[in-house]
Amino acid sequence: MFKALADPTRRFLLDLLFARDGRTLTELESELEMTRFGVMKHLRVLEEAGLVVVRRSGREKHHFLNPVPIRLIHDRWIDKYTERQVTALLDLKNELEKDHDRD
Amino acid sequence: MFKALADPTRRFLLDLLFARDGRTLTELESELEMTRFGVMKHLRVLEEAGLVVVRRSGREKHHFLNPVPIRLIHDRWIDKYTERQVTALLDLKNELEKDHDRD
DNA sequence: AAGTTATGTGACCCGAAGGTCACATGTCAA
DNA sequence: TTGACATGTGACCTTCGGGTCACATAACTT
C-alpha cells in the first residue's frame, strides 16, 4: 500500500482520479506517455493497495479514488494533538502564499 | 519522499520515533535486526525526505519525527469536504472495534 | 596519547519493480 | 458472425534499491 504511492506514475493516476473519478483504462492511458500495459500494471497495484476501487460495466472498467487508506497513513504518525498544530501551521502557510503547487 | 515511506524498515523507524523522539543511530539500531549501515542508509533517506529532522550534539546525532510531510500527503488527495466523511467513518469504525493494530 | 565509542563513505551483490511486447479473451455493433 | 474495441496474461529486459563489508573520520574518556 505504501509501495503503491512510491511511484510517480501511480501518484499522477491518483491525481487524475482525484480531479475526476470513474475513468476507464484507455481514458487514463491517453493522459500518459506510456503503453497501455504499463498503465494497467500501475492500476492493478493501486487497486490491490485499496487506493483505487473498481466498477465493471460491460467490457469497460471504471476506476474510483478511495480516500480511506490515505487517511490511515495520516493517523498512523499524527496524533490528534499534533494534528491541530500541523493543520494550523499549513493553513497559515497557505494563507500567506495564496498560490500553491505541490510535488 | 513517497519512496521513503515505501520501505517497511523505514516505517518501523518512524514508528519508533513516533513513540519516542530524539533517539540516536545506535539506539535505533538496537531495535532492528540489521547492521548499523543499513539503518544509517534508511535514516538518511528519511532525512532527505524531510520526514526526520536531525540535531547534532557532539558525536551523537539525534533524530526527530516531522509530521508536516505526512499531512501534505493527506491534503493532496483528501479535500476538506471528503475529510469530514472519512474521519467520521474511521472514528465510527474505531468506536465499534475498540482494539486496533495496523499494518 | 591511546583506546573506545558514534558516525560516515565507497564499492559490491542480489532481488524486486517498472516497462514493453506477443498473444489471448471477452464484448459491443452492424 | 465478423470485425473492431476494451481489457487481460505471461515472459522478458533493465534499472534501482536494500543490505553488507572494509575502511575511515571525529569525539569522549582516562
Topology, pairings included?
Two copies of one chain form a homodimer.
Chain A: H1 2-6, H2 8-19, E1 23-24, H3 25-29, H4 36-48, E2 52-57, E3 60-65, H5 68-77, H6 80-97
Antiparallel strand pairs in A: 1-3, 2-3
Chain A binds a DNA duplex (30 and 30 nucleotides) through residues 3, 6-7, 9, 24-26, 34-38, 40-42, 45, 58-61.
Please tell me about this protein's structure.
2 copies of one chain form a homodimer. The first copy, chain A, is built from 6 helices and 3 strands. In chain A, a hairpin with a 2-residue loop joins strand 2 and strand 3 (60-65). By secondary structure, chain A is of the alpha+beta class. The longest helix of chain A has 18 residues, at 80-97. Chain A has helices spanning 2-6, 8-19, 25-29, 36-48, 68-77, 80-97, and strands at residues 23-24, 52-57, 60-65. Chain A folds into 2 domains: 2-65, Orthogonal Bundle (Arc Repressor Mutant, subunit A), CATH 1.10.10.10; 68-97, no CATH class. The first copy, chain A, binds a DNA duplex (30 and 30 nucleotides) through helix 4.
Short note summarizing the structure:
Two copies of one chain form a homodimer. The first copy, chain A, has 103 residues and is an alpha+beta fold.
